[in-house]
């Protein structure tokens, strides 16, 4: 098996000349956009016998397909005209109200006016970056941080500044130190982007005390916080502490998503935040796509109304917890004993660091693919150039029987490359 | 009936203070974003007895609801997992191929690699603006021009430069004159945004000779053209001339949409252009929303495959042609004799200019609403501050019986305000 991997979509032969003809047309923003390693690997891992721990998708075999078909049929039958027409930019009123209720269940009292429905969380990240980031102005992110968030900020030309993390997530003292340093240079960060619950890629869960400390720092420095909570409902031990938004509603923008617990293919997420900020975000959404899929919004509404989505989520937790356990066990068996990782208490990811590799995990990836296994290299998540020895492993969409086999392949491969003499 | 209209979403009482607290957080882009008059008027015109010629939507009573329900049920039953999962950023391969065929039918040979599927045309406009516009760099648009396109460019901080038009659309000599003037100042326009077929809002159809002249100018000045063709299939006399993209495939980016001929609520549009540009647009889309609704794409695919969409489109032409005729007749009967407009040979819009009004059509709008009729004021479409005496009337989504009555109300109102002595 021979595989070549590039960090950009493949350019067919003879195309380089053709591309350069167009270089002059691109905007500064376009020049600073980065393609995600994860998306680019999509095609490569679909073929052949590769076991892929790369994509952080929900597993499609848990989609309640019959249920979904019934909900769709219901929407098509009962509101054909509304569901097929353009809708309000902010989202349909009934779903905004239902999401406000959902926020209440998560410990955040909210009104429908504080909810903006988006085309998944990625659009929420993009709208936030457009509305609050400026070219070259600093934005604080985690080390490692979610590549979709980093790319949205980079696409809007924000300057990414990494904040230190450990096995409990972002370190508040590190954040205030960075803010102080920026301030001494006359700069103020535009916002802090953070995933407190089952971080992507780190798998960490931010403890209560750190949440309080972070919010305290944000108040002290008049900092906006963007809290991304795509995974909070997928906890395997206990429900996470209250969202940051519950602790500082005046300065936290919360991003939620149905993609992990219902269907990503419908593209429904939301932003919950202070109304004056939401109004501006809605103007940004108007220019971005006028409105999200009305049909998708009605299907999610019916899903929430039918009332057994909690049971479905609970069932999902069991499935993903089991997959996490399988990966954990396999990592203990098959990975080098000095590999470092913490066990995620929810979400989809192990972030594994393997010391003493002869080169970066990104450089090793083509060989790993040739060994029939895929991961995401750590460097894409680290804005400081770190993550060379790290990789993200997602257990979410790999069949149970394949998790052990995939980790065995990868562990043996990594042990093997450490034994090889360094090149040159 | 008493109605107040604002150009921004209403701010509840006491909120001004709260808003100003957040002003410092907004990006330069957010500060230059404009809310669309059309979207803001949405809520106002939904209530009461108002006959609204404002929204340029397809009429929902022509949606083939049963057909749609059947297609959705089919997708849900036959590809539940694929349709509910994330998909490729560029769009699902089968639909890209089907759209490439569709482009062929419109006289533009295309490969699937030259098609990027988007969340409606508005996202296509946004991606184009992000990828090719720069802060303060000039972008050429029509006078009047489509407000969704203008807003997408403004949201990306492009500097809008209006090009002259007449009853046949954009005037090529005017475009080259503007380019020469910019060049003499050391500037090059980033692109020209144009709607050749049944322009929104002007209703004009660009003749073959002008298309050739425009493309010739673009070649001479190495100009990129963005051709928006949301309405081309809705012709009432004969099929429009070949798209600009057929005339200069190396420098025209074509935007297509299913929103006017199928369902806007699914949010499926596309970009067809040179592959090197599409690859960059796809990276922009990755940061914007990862991928469009997979489910929506499969439903559109089934719609195209079932093969009788041409008949449906032909049926739509008959319906909209009849509405156009009703509005035309009503305009002749009820509007001041010196009102100027050209009769659209397709699409949804009459652009009417009424001379000698005592104030702008925007200022008159609250009174018009009080008289039970809505339109979109001309100024929102004119980046040069013009359009004060103009208004856009859409006949697409108004029931036939109401078109005559609405135009009667509006005509009498306008005649009335011209007779009133000027204020002060």
Instruction: Predict the CATH topology of the largest domain in chain A.
Output: Aspartate Aminotransferase, domain 2
Which sequence of SSEs, written as H and E, runs from N to C of chain A?
Answer: HHHEHHHEHEHEEEHEHEHEEHHHEHEEEH
CATH superfamily of the largest domain in chain A: Type I PLP-dependent aspartate aminotransferase-like (Major domain)
Contiguous helical run count of chain A: 16
> Which oligomeric state applies?
homodimer
What is the element layout, followed by pairings?
The structure is a homodimer of 424-residue chains.
Chain A: H1 15-22, H2 28-32, H3 37-46, E1 51-52, H4 65-78, H5 80-84, H6 93-105, E2 115-118, H7 120-132, E3 138-142, H8 147-155, E4 159-163, E5 165-166, E6 169-170, H9 172-184, E7 192-194, H10 208-220, E8 225-228, H11 244-247, E9 252-257, E10 269-272, H12 275-289, H13 294-305, H14 309-334, E11 349-353, H15 361-370, E12 373-374, E13 376-377, E14 390-394, H16 400-419
Parallel strand pairs in A: 1-12, 3-4, 7-8, 8-9
Antiparallel strand pairs in A: 2-10, 5-6, 9-10, 11-14, 13-14
Helix pairs in contact in A: 4-13, 7-8, 7-12, 9-10, 14-16
